[in-house]
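Annex B. Sample input.
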Amino acid sequence: VQGLCGGVDDEIRRGEVGLSGGIADHGPAGGLEGLRLRVDLQGRGLGDRGQFAGQRGTFGHAPSVVARRYPETPRGSTGWGTPDQPDGRCRAARIRGTLDVMAEIAVQVQNLRKQYGRRNAVDDVSFDIRMGETFALLGPNGAGKSTTVEILEGYRRRNSGDVRVLGHDPARADAAFRARIGVVLQSAGELGALSVREQLTQFAGFYPHPRDVDEVIAAVGLTELAGRRVSKLSGGQQRRVDVALGIIGRPEVLFLDEPTTGFDPAARRSFWELIRSLSAEGVTIVLTTHYLDEAAQLADRVGIIAEGRLRALGGVDDVGGASARTPIVRWREGDALRERRTDEPGAVVADLVRRLGGEPPDLQVVRPTLEDVYLDLVADSAASDPAPMEAAR
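Annex B, continued. Sample output.
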C-alpha cells in the first residue's frame, strides 16, 4: 500500500489490496465509501510479532478503521513506516504485508439465555448489530426484549451464551467500556435539585470526550428550560433530559429503552430527527419501542422477540419473509368484512367486480406493514409452542 501518511486520521490514498469477497484495486474511496472496516497491517519482516501499536485511520473515505503503527521511529517523524523505512515519510512510506479487512460488528449475541426460576425469559437468542446501524428490538411486554437489552448494557447477568458489545463482555465491563456506551432507561432515578444545564454539566465530567452541554440541550429541545430544575419539568420534558444524559458522553453505542414514552406527537418527531442525526454521525443505536411506526421510521433492521425467542430478524421492509408481505385484498360483502391474501391483487379485484356486478364496498388493497407482520408473529407465538426464528436477511 503506497502513500500511507502518519497520524490518527490518516488515509490510505491509493493501493492494491485484497479484501474478503474478492474486491481489489481500489482508488480513493474505491467503492467502499461508508463501509466500516478493521484493518490489520503486518509490515515486512514483522510477521505476527505484534510490533505495531493500535491507532485509528481510514481506508478510502470509510470511518472507524483500526490500522497499526510502527513505534520504533525517530522523534518528530510521522511514525508510519516499515522496518527498512522507519521515518514514515508520506512520499516514501510503503507497507508490504497483509490487510485483514472485515466489517465491524458493534454488538454480537450468540445463544443467549436468561432464566428466572424455571422460566426462560430469553431462550437461545442470537443476532449481530453492525457499527453505525440502528436496530430495533420489538416484542410485547414480558417477551424478553428488556432483559436482553439490560444484559447488553451490563445491568443484568446471563445464564449462558456469549455477548460482546464493542468487543467486550458487558458482564465484565470496566469504566473505559462504559464511557463508550450511552443508556436511556425506561424510567429515570432520583432527579435531585439540579437544573437541566447543571445536571448535564455534572454528567459531562464523567466522560473523556463529552459533547458540548448547550449543543445537547438544544438537540433535545430544552434550551428555554436549561436553567429550570429537572424535578420541576413535565414528564415528557424529563424524558428529554434522560435522552440528553444518554448522549452527552458521545457514545459509540446508544441504548434507548422506550425513549419516547410520554412525548407528544411533535416531540416524538423532533426526537426522531435527533436519532437520525446521531445515526448519520455513525452512532450504533439499539432501540426498544412499542411504537411500530417509530421502529419503521428509525430502524435499519428489526428483531421481533416473543415468548423469549427471536421470531424474525431482517430489514424493516422484509422482516418475516416474503410470505408475510403478501398483499391483502379487503372488501365488504353483505354484512361481512372479508379479506384475501394474494400475489395477484388486481386479478382478485377484477373477479370481485365481475361477480358482484361492480366495485364492492370498503374495497382496499394493502401490503402488510411492519405492524401487521409484528402482530401476526406475536399472535402465532402465543398460539403455538416456541418455534425457530424465521430470518429475512
